[in-house]
Amino acid sequence: MEQVATATAARAFNLYKLTPAFLEDPFPVYHALRHHSPVHRMPDGSVFLSRYADVLEVYRDRRMSSDKTKEFGPKFGDGGLYRHHTTSLVFNDPPLHTRVRKLLAEAFTPRAMRQMEPSIVAMVDGFLDDAAEREQVDLIGDFAFALPVGVICDMLGVPVADRDRLRDWAVTILGALEPVISDDHLQRGNAAVDGFSAYLKDLIDERRKALRDDDILSRLIMGEVEGEGLTEEELIQNCIFLLNAGHETTTNLIGNGIAALLAFPGELQRLRDNPDMMDSAIEEFLRFESSNQLGNRRVTVETCIGDEVLSPGTVIHLGIGAANRDPAMFHDPDRLDITRSPNRHLAFGWGAHVCMGNTLARMEGRIAIRGLLDRFSTIEPDGPSARTGRARFRGFRTFPVRLRQNWSGQRRGAVV
Fold first, then answer.
1. Which of 44, 52, 128, 242 has its CA 20 to 30 A from that of 12?
2. Region 158-183 average pLDDT
3. Dihedrals phi, psi of 377, to nearest 5 degrees
């Protein structure tokens, strides 16, 4: 009977008509899709891939396009959301993708990340000091969200007083990437892009008067690739992209990671006993509940995936969260194992479009989660948590916790 039920769930799956149960826990449906409909046709002709091997094959195929102008036109119209999401790095092919990525690459080198680590440790210490005084905090709003927003705003030189409204704009703009959005969200999203763009134009104009050598914004203003820099619109929209992408992955990594440890207390204790396992634990958090659950590509030449022939123009939905729970790749995939090795998850994508900020996200997650475990002997839910209700970006909207300190409250010092 259970087998029949899962087959029914697979056949009925429609990314554009998702249920609250799916948004709360999509993994049973992903398992059903892998078993019964791994190359799943949607009513609009697009396909959803749930097997690791298929998702990786698409990532490796350079003929697959990341350009979203055709898909986003009907969805967004010609307003701010369309302008932003078709100009930013992630939804473009070369040559724009290559040019912008090269300009940004210098800010995300291993050397640049090492230089940032002390300031991130200090920022985490400040959040933990505040949490220790209060004992009851929202893990998301007070910590997991605030940390990466602070880091990326520092990198771009955004004044502290302006950061709250930037966070609100970012949430609205990223939320518009869900498979289906309401007319109200469309209007709010367009307004958010317009407001964000106007703010950044003023910030850029001010920075041009006093360029610096210690922030990304100045590098983007001055930078050129083969004699060509960014246009004003490309500069603005890719700064918005950096601010948005800079917080989403890390926020979800921290929230999902702590939630996973609380759900698997044996792994939590093992990590407390062996803090040197933190790097492998971070990789497992990324696999177990990937911050970004969905990707997209468009077929440019006829190709076969599984038994399906895909014609040019077909939109492919990459089930990143499903691929990272594929038992053909990961033993016992629904179990958290902080020592899992190898752990070739696809949480950051693969190939030319692999997330540029993956080193920064890993570092922020490592420092934040280790800091919490070092400082507090008890981390326990303090009321119901709430997921964001989004399919693409999996994380929590609120996660109230109660904390108890390990010791008298002195700072733990730098995390290395």
1. 52
2. 89
3. -75, -25
Instruction: Decide if pLDDT at 1 tops 50.
Output: no
Q: Is 225 helix (H, G, I), strand (E, B) or coil?
A: strand
Please report, as a single letter, which amino acid is at residue 411: R
Instruction: Give kind and range of the element (H or E) at residue 310.
Output: strand 308-310
Q: Answer whether residue 100 is part of any domain.
A: yes
β-strands 386-387, 39-41: how paired?
Answer: unpaired
Contact between 145 and 251 (Cβ < 8 Å): yes
Listed range (132-146, 208-222, 227-241, 338-352) with the worst mean pLDDT = 208-222
Helix axes 232-263, 265-273, angle to 10 degrees: 100
Write the CA distances from 67 to 72, 247, 337, 360, 393, integer angstroms. Answer: 10, 23, 36, 25, 20
Q: How far apart are CA 135 and CA 376, in angstroms?
A: 10
C-alpha dihedral (349, 355, 359, 361), degrees to nearest 10:
-90
- 93 within some domain: yes
Look at residue 223 in the predicted model and tell me its pLDDT. Answer: 84
pLDDT at 114 over 90: no
Q: What is the overall mean pLDDT for the chain?
A: 91
Into how many domains does the chain fold? 1
Read off the pLDDT of each residue in 385-400 and give the average, rounded to a whole number.
95
| Residue entry with tokens 């398992």 | 31
Q: Which of 103, 70, 63 shows the shortest CA–CA distance to 86?
A: 70
Instruction: Supply the Cα-derived Rg of the chain in whole angstroms.
Output: 21
CATH number reported for the structural domain that contains residue 39 in this entry: 1.10.630.10
Please tell me the pTM assigned to this model.
Answer: 0.93
Rounded (10°) angle between helices 2-12 and 27-36:
90
With contact defined as beta carbons under 8 Å apart, do 80 and 191 qualify? Answer: yes
Residue 291 has pLDDT above 90, yes or no: yes
- Amino acid found at 362: R
Select the more confidently predicted residue: 406 or 400.
Answer: 400
Residue 411 lies in a domain: no
Per-residue tokens: 182: 């309401």
Quick one: pLDDT at residue 4?
A: 56
The confidence band for 251, taking pLDDT boundaries of 50, 70 and 90, is: very high
Of 22, 26, 54, nearest to 38 (Cα)? 54
Contact predicate 46/314, CB 8 Å: yes
Q: From CA 297, how far away is CA 318, in angstroms rounded?
A: 8
Q: List the domain range (segments joined by +) for residue 387.
A: 2-405
Which residue has tokens 């995936």?
305
Q: Is residue 414 part of a domain?
A: no
